[in-house]
Amino acid sequence: MKIIETERLYLRELRIDDKKELMKVLSDPESMQFYPHPFTEEEVEKWIQWNIENYKKYKHGLWAVILKESDIFVGDCGITMQNISDKTVPEIGFHIIKKYCNMGFASEAALACKEYALKVLQYPEVFSYATLNNISSQKVAEKIGMRFYEYFEKNGEKQIIQVASKD
Fold first, then answer.
1. Which of 33, 92, 134, 152 could form a disulfide with 130 if both were Cys (CB 3.0 to 4.6 A apart)?
2. Domains (ranges, CATH) in the chain?
3. pTM for the whole thing?
């Protein structure tokens, strides 16, 4: 079932049988350089399960990002609840398979998720965070209209938080 549709993409709920495709990004050392480590196969399966639980609990999570034209899986993108500066807030995250990076898919999917969070889910604000060195993620947040909010520490690293609101 399609949750969100854009010009080139559609987002749908992740399924366990997406594991092989999702491993192409979550198990890739370069793609996961801003995480503590690339994910093992078991961690990718737990990631999918966590999102399936989020769909039930919050009515959102990270969704599979699929190219409409060819039905090809290119990554995940969506809205998860994150603890940022002692508050639980909706946060837009994404992971795009390296082969499909720099084609605008992250920005297209993230913009659709931002609009979904604000208009459909009726959140007053939606956030994005990244380590200071993760310039690519920060640029995606800027492209979709997010602005600097604050810095915070996570896993011993300084993070930048960006925000978008309804107004």
1. 134
2. 2-123 (3.40.630.30)
3. 0.94
